[in-house]
Amino acid sequence: MKKILIADDHSLVRYGLRVALLNHFADAQVDEGWNGQTIMAQLKINQYDLVLLDLGMPDTDPMTILHWIRNFHPDTKVLIVSMNSETIFGKRALQMGAHGYIEKDASPEDLIKAVNVVLTGKKYMSADLADIIVNDSLNHKSINPFDELTPREFQVAMYIIQDYTITQISELMQLQYTSISTFRRRIFEKLNIADRKGLVQLADAYKLN
Fold it and tell me: Residue 149 gets which letter from DSSP?
């Protein structure tokens, strides 16, 4: 019997994912979490085969959860299910240790395909994302300046764009205030910008918002 955790703050999304999963895995145990606290509580009492993880839950850092799963549940696979564009955020998620990435507007058939691929131990990505990764590898560089950031720097940049304070980011990511301040300085230096306004404008230009 497969054990699957759906981690998403929208009840309708959780319901839709549950229906799609149980239509294919009739005898699966499908649990739910909707914020960092409920997700971590489930992970501490269950050994899941798969976690479907949203990137946009309020007051929750999904990458911290992903990091925790990799360290304490290395056999658990993580499939990101997100509203964010796969071609922009998918590569970052894979770099951080996710086993696959699929957008929420994908069909139920594509979702089940992604789940099956990830459960076999393979990486799942769309043809578009695969092309981007191959082209970046062949050219040894991406035209997107945000790709110059490390995964952690990119994560901090996304929070700054959303107007989180340094204190809020440090609490979400469970890192020291000084560490977040250092990440912010490096982000501005690498992107050649002076402040948050410049960061937001650059994000708009590359459709990260």
Answer: S
